[in-house]
Structure formats: structure tokens, C-alpha cells
Design goal:
It is built from 11 helices and 12 strands. The protein is an alpha/beta fold and 341 residues long. The protein is globular and about 70 Å long.
Length: 341
């Protein structure tokens, strides 16, 4: 079995929110736990999917494990080295080994540079290759992401969404990374282009031995590319296991509803990229509101929206601050943070 390339232990990232004049003057404010005690690991050449609603902390985790954002506490070990408190200068040699595909198609693409210069800049940021080596690597990158040679003379604004994504991926590959955090890499793309990007990422992993942390709110897409999946809610992982089990045999009420809502959307739009629906699609659907940070978070954070909590008569154990459910193994490496899983 391959060794772990990334180990995250009890990771926390809290932000302070100050409202009103008095809290600002007094230095007081509400603390928002964007990431609150998250632990997981990735093995070499493995893909772990991270799913959940917008605002649950997925992107914050991705940015924090790469040290693009500093953690509030916890431990991040990359390639056997603790990088949690390394300075920016100490991190620089490691930057080439861990890269991020940003959700924004234009992120990392200088609008005033043509594609050729964007890739040239990436190729020379850590090395000083010759012109011949640059041309050879640029040709290799173009072939790896299936980008036409004619696009090298285009500005980002002249590219389609799929072409921008391919340039962004090529830019990341230019530094030969080992770990890639892919943040919503299929968002803002047509379904057919999403399929192409998914297939491209899988092929690159196979041929280059890449490791992915694949972040998305779209569970079917994550199921296609991931071996394991972690489901996030309100800054915490509430369920984690093999992708097929998370998608087709979810144990946490949140995962059940999350998958069912996606299956409903899929049924309305047609099979598309995702193929046919899962068994979970036939389960009971419940409507819920948009997440609100103002909701109580004592005990189980999902309790205010949980149908199981209501069906069981709102048991006190679910809202007791001293009994917040922790991830526990329910068999076959499947972990769930629910008192009634």
C-alpha cells in the first residue's frame, strides 16, 4: 500500500466577524469556525473527494493544507514533513510539489499575457531552463492537456471555458507537482466539457502519478474520480468512506439529503454526465433553507435541519454541547458523526 503524502490532524481555521461600532472598538466579535477539527489523509496516487454545500469550509481546507491560508491550529504533514508553521521562505521550495486548480477559471491567468507567456512564466518560476527546454516542455504540456498549438497566441479572454481550464491545468503541471488540490474544477462548464475535464484529470493521474484532493459540491462528479469521499457540514467532516458507499449507502442524514437533492436535479435535467441515479434517489426528500451561521451549533450541528432528529422527538443528546457526535467507524473504513447512524 502506498504511503501517505498528506496527513491533516485536528485542523482548525477560525475567522472573527465584528459587527457594530462597540465590538470593533473593543476588539470583540463573533468567531466563525470555517474549519473546525478536521482530520484526514491522502495516499500517493489517490483521489479523496471533499463534498458539501457552498460555505461549509471545503475551499478553506484546500487553501489551508497548501498553506495559502494559515491555520488557526492543528497539524499538516506533507511528504513526511510538518509544514504547519513553516515560514513563507521555508515553504517556497515545497510550493512546486503542491499546487491548486482554482475554481475561478481566470485565477492564475494574467489577462495581459498570451497563453505561451503564461506557461513560460510557470516553467521558469522554479527553474532556469534553456529556450529549447522551454519549447519542449511547452509542447509536452500542450499535448498532456489536449490544447491546440494555435491557442498559445491567444489571451485568456479569447478562450472558451474549457480551454481556460486546460491552460490552468497546464500551468499547474508545469512545475511537476505531486499533490493537486482541485477546487470545483468542473464548475461553470457545460456538461460535455465537465466530462472532458474529469477524464483529463483521471488520465493525468494515471500517467503522472498525481494525488488529488478533489473539492466539489457535486457528489456524482466526485464519485467518478475519487476512491474515498469526505462529506463536510459546517466546518466538520460528518461522514467519510469509500466513494461508492458514500454515494449509494450513505449513513449520515445530511449525506442522504445531499445526494437525494442532486439526484432530483439530475432527473430533471436528464442523465447527462452522471449516468443513472442511485438507490438513494428514491429516499424521502425534505426541503431545507440556506445555511445560516446564526443557527445554534451546540451538540450536533446538523440537528436544526435534521429529519432524523425531528422523527426521534428532538432528543436532548443531539443538542447537548457536551455530546457533539464524533466520527466513529461503522465498519469497512466507513466513519460517521451521528448518534443514530
Amino acid at each position: 500500500m502506498s504511503r501517505a503524502i498528506l496527513e491533516v490532524t485536528d485542523l482548525r481555521k477560525h475567522y472573527s466577524q465584528r459587527r457594530g461600532l462597540l465590538p470593533m472598538l473593543g476588539g470583540q466579535g463573533r468567531v466563525i469556525p470555517a474549519v473546525d477539527g478536521v482530520s484526514f489523509y491522502l495516499r500517493e496516487n489517490e483521489t479523496v473527494g471533499l463534498v458539501g454545500e457552498s460555505g461549509c469550509g471545503k475551499t478553506t481546507i484546500g487553501r489551508t493544507v497548501l498553506r495559502l491560508t494559515d491555520p488557526s491550529s492543528g497539524r499538516i504533514v506533507f511528504g513526511g514533513r510538518d509544514i504547519t508553521r513553516l515560514s513563507r521562505a521555508e515553504l517556497r521550495p515545497l510550493r512546486r510539489e503542491m499546487q491548486m486548480i482554482f475554481q475561478d477559471l481566470d485565477a492564475g491567468l494574467n489577462p495581459k499575457m498570451v497563453v505561451r507567456d503564461i506557461l513560460r512564466e510557470a516553467l521558469t518560476v522554479h527553474e532556469r531552463p534553456s529556450d529549447a527546454e522551454i519549447e519542449a516542455r511547452m509542447r509536452e504540456l500542450r499535448e498532456q492537456v489536449n490544447l491546440k498549438d494555435s491557442k498559445l497566441a491567444n489571451f485568456p479572454s479569447e478562450l472558451s471555458g474549457g480551454e481556460k481550464r486546460r491552460v490552468g491545468i497546464a500551468r499547474v503541471l508545469a512545475v511537476r507537482p505531486r499533490l493537486i488540490v482541485a477546487d470545483e474544477p468542473t464548475s461553470a462548464l457545460d456538461v460535455s466539457i465537465q466530462a472532458q475535464v474529469v477524464n483529463l484529470l483521471r488520465d493525468l493521474q494515471k500517467h503522472l502519478g498525481l494525488t488529488y484532493l478533489f473539492i466539489s459540491h457535486d457528489l456524482p462528479v466526485v464519485e467518478l474520480v475519487s476512491r474515498k469521499v469526505a462529506v463536510m457540514y459546517l466546518g466538520r467532516i460528518v461522514e467519510m468512506g469509500l466513494a461508492e458507499n458514500i454515494a449509494h449507502q450513505p449513513r449520515h442524514p445530511y449525506t442522504v439529503i445531499l445526494w437525494s437533492s442532486l439526484a432530483d436535479r439530475q432527473s430533471a435535467a436528464g442523465a447527462g454526465l452522471y449516468g443513472r441515479g442511485s438507490a438513494a434517489a428514491g429516499r424521502e426528500r425534505r426541503t431545507w433553507g440556506v445555511f445560516d451561521f446564526e443557527q445554534p451549533t451546540s451538540g450536533c450541528r446538523f440537528a436544526p435541519r435534521c429529519p432524523l432528529y425531528r422523527d426521534k422527538g428532538s432528543p436532548a443528546v443531539c443538542t447537548d454541547p457536551a455530546s457533539e457526535p464524533q466520527l466513529r467507524d461503522v465498519g469497512n473504513g466507513h466513519a460517521v458523526a451521528c448518534h443514530f447512524a
